Amino acid sequence: MAKIIILGAGLTGLSAAYHLEQNGFFDYKIYDKEDAPGGLCRSVQQDGFTFDYTGHLLHINDPYMESFSNDNLGKKNFNTIVRRSFIQSHDTFIKYPFQINLYGLPSKVISECIEGFVNRPQSNKDPKSFHAWVMKHFGAGLAKHFFTPFQSKILAYDIKKITPSWTGRFVPKTSLTQMIDGALGGQKEDEKVGYNSTFFYPQKGGISYIISSLVAKIKNQIQTGFEMESIDLQNKVVTFTNGDFETYDHLINTIPLDNFLKKTVDSSATNLNPQHKNLVCNSVFNFNLGINRADLTTKHWIYFPEGEYPFYRLGFPHNFAKSMAPAGCSSLYGECAFVGQTDTQALLANALDKTKKILNLNDNEIITQKIITIPRAYVLYTFWREKNLPQLLNQLEQHAIYSIGRYGGWKYSSMQESILDGQKVAQQILSEQQVMPSQQFEQENLFK
Ligand SMILES: Cc1cc2nc3c(=O)[nH]c(=O)nc-3n(C[C@H](O)[C@H](O)[C@H](O)COP(=O)(O)OP(=O)(O)OC[C@H]3O[C@@H](n4cnc5c(N)ncnc54)[C@H](O)[C@@H]3O)c2cc1C
To answer: Does the domain made of 282-374 have the CATH classification 3.90.660.20?
Structure first.
């Protein structure tokens, strides 16, 4: 019996564990099905290269995250990097974001984008779909030349069937002045547009440096090799595939919500189990290459909206930290999204062919290759999700289950949000449920 069980030792689960302990609470257990913690925030070493489970860059814009990082990760261990990201369009590379950097595109494309922006539909109604949101804020030209092909590719889904509620800080808006400036080449090199204009990256160890730093701070054992098989909501028992089981008072779930629901045994009238079928996400096929050429490019990453390229992005980790590739070498990652099944062999062959062409690479220069498939990558903001997710999470809370993180909370979120979700849930459970052993702590020390 543990008062609190944490399912999943990715960044969110580890943050919850860390914040429980920071508040002096140790009557919890944390489990993960893999043989090491970290979840998606993971790096592998191969032939002298470090590859992340696709590009992971740390963005910080929250004051608590700032102090958490200073205290636990050590800002001095990170490179602070000003973004150099581009979009490949009409046989040229333009700077990101597209909407304010039209310079270099064919004049017909520029005029369609500006004309579309000026004539965009005016309405006071909130757009229901992402497509309608793009038309309202950017117009038909930008929709045609960037947003529709790019977002359809990265989501591998019909953008008329998803809501715009995730766009908030991810899609920078624009004005006519900015567009015209950008079309004339007037954007400043250091334009601070978008959530990722500056980012942080560990100097050594790849992105999993964040995990190893956090794990080093956690005192309780992280129980790896424990895959949750089923959960009895009424009796509050979790059973694992290795035959072990554990009871709890409160459960913090960070494993994918669809899978979690599928494993619930719920004898109540509001059986939550069947809801798993309504949650939709895509998968990402991630190929990583070690390349025997110094300075392959100075870019950090390139977006590819056009259909002839199977990937939506290529990134270059050797430009995040020198330690990512041996001296004299470069590295890259590519990402292709799909829903359901795909022929990964054919996808890889096409992706390698296009990568070699765009970067003028030959086979002899590719020293090593690491393929990673991420089964749940981008949560799709379907209309069902918009309408039902809050109630679903609420119903779980009535069973003392707090489902958080990118996949537990079924949302489009970042590593920063994982840390914050873990902090908030520890605070919520310890304060609301009064599970704190009272004599161990000074009240005023809580949640500082
Ligand atoms: C393509 C892509 C690019 C990204 N890029 C960035 C970026 O640049 N910057 C950024 O900040 N964020 C980025 N993210 C988001 C980031 O990866 C996540 O926000 C964060 O890692 C999520 O952590 P988590 O702990 O919530 O989930 P996860 O990392 O998925 O952890 C969940 C854990 O649960 C475990 N688990 C699953 N099922 C079971 C089971 N049945 N029993 C026991 N354990 C189980 C898993 O093994 C895993 O360890 C990106 C994500 C993707 C998909």
So the answer is: yes
Q: Is the CB of 32 within 6 Å of ligand 1?
A: yes
Question: Domain 2-43+65-76+205-276+383-445's class?
Answer: alpha beta
Extract the tokens encoding 299: 């870019």
pTM over 0.85: yes
CA distance 243 to 227: 10
CA separation, residue 351 to residues 48, 163, 171, 334 (Å): 23, 29, 26, 8
User: Above 50 in pLDDT, residue 447?
Assistant: no
Encode pLDDT of 160-184 as tens digits. Answer: 999 999 987 778 888 999 999 999 9
Where do the domains of the chain lie?
2-43+65-76+205-276+383-445, 85-195, 282-374
286 touches ligand 1 (CB under 6 Å): no
Q: Which atom of ligand 1 is nearest to the CA of 284?
A: 1
pLDDT of residue 321: 98
| pLDDT per residue as tens digits for the range 52-89 | 999 999 999 999 999 999 999 998 999 999 999 999 99
User: Which numbered atom of ligand 1 lies nearest the CA of 413?
Assistant: 19
Task: Pick from 283, 415, 416 the residue to mutate for probing ligand 1's pocket: most ligand atoms within 8 Å of its CB.
Answer: 415
Position 434 scores a pLDDT of 65
* DSSP annotation string for 30-74: EEESSSSSBTTS-EEEETTEEEESS---B----HHHHHHIIIII-
- Give the C-alpha distances (Å, rounded to integers) separating 195 from 57, 140, 150: 11, 24, 18
Q: What is the model's pLDDT at position 270?
A: 81
